[in-house]
Amino acid sequence: MGSSASKGRHSGTNVDQKIVSIPHQHSNEHINALVKGLSTLRKTSTLCDVTLSVNETEKGPLNKYNAHRCVLAASSVYFREKLGVSAAEFDGEQPPTPESKTTPRNDVTTDDVPIDFPITHKAMETVLQYIYSAVLESDPRDIPNVVEAAVKLGIDSLKRRCIAEIQSGFQLEYFQRILKLSEQLDLSEL
């Protein structure tokens, strides 16, 4: 937030030039445009560099979803690990190696990233919509599947949104399912 002055030439004369550093302020317009643009790119499969392979149950069917590595890695602990981004690199505590800047690591050497646990198609669509738009739109009956996916994928903000949705729209018919899920995933918040 300071300024520095330097001598420079302007129209043939010496003029003091001051460079002023303006503190970063969030621009909702820019954030909204970025999120909308990323969502549009995914929906049209433009510049997508990874395909997620997801089984709806342990034995199938296999669903595929196009996405962007950088968006997945920025949004999910699970995807960071799958794509080989260390926590230290992600937190800026360690510079990435030259290879990690350009090549995928770990067991993911192709554009296909298998997800190692079942996720329903509706839950996966909701997760991707949330990752790319920060919007949670789901049938209340699907929220338990979405919160389970959020926990397993390490998307804490989505987990918190689902828990808030469950708490605000509590319906007796889902009580046993939610209680079981809470115990399985150790979600004391529920």
From TrEMBL:
Compartments, record wording: Nucleus
Protein name (database record): BTB domain-containing protein
SUPFAM superfamilies: POZ domain (SSF54695)
CDD domains attached to this UniProt entry: BTB_POZ_ZBTB_KLHL-like (cd18186)
Limits of the BTB domain: 48-140
Record Pfam families: BTB
Main subcellular localisation: nucleus
Gene3D superfamilies membership: Potassium Channel Kv1.1, Chain A
Taxonomy, superkingdom: Eukaryota
Gene Ontology MF terms in the entry: DNA binding; zinc ion binding
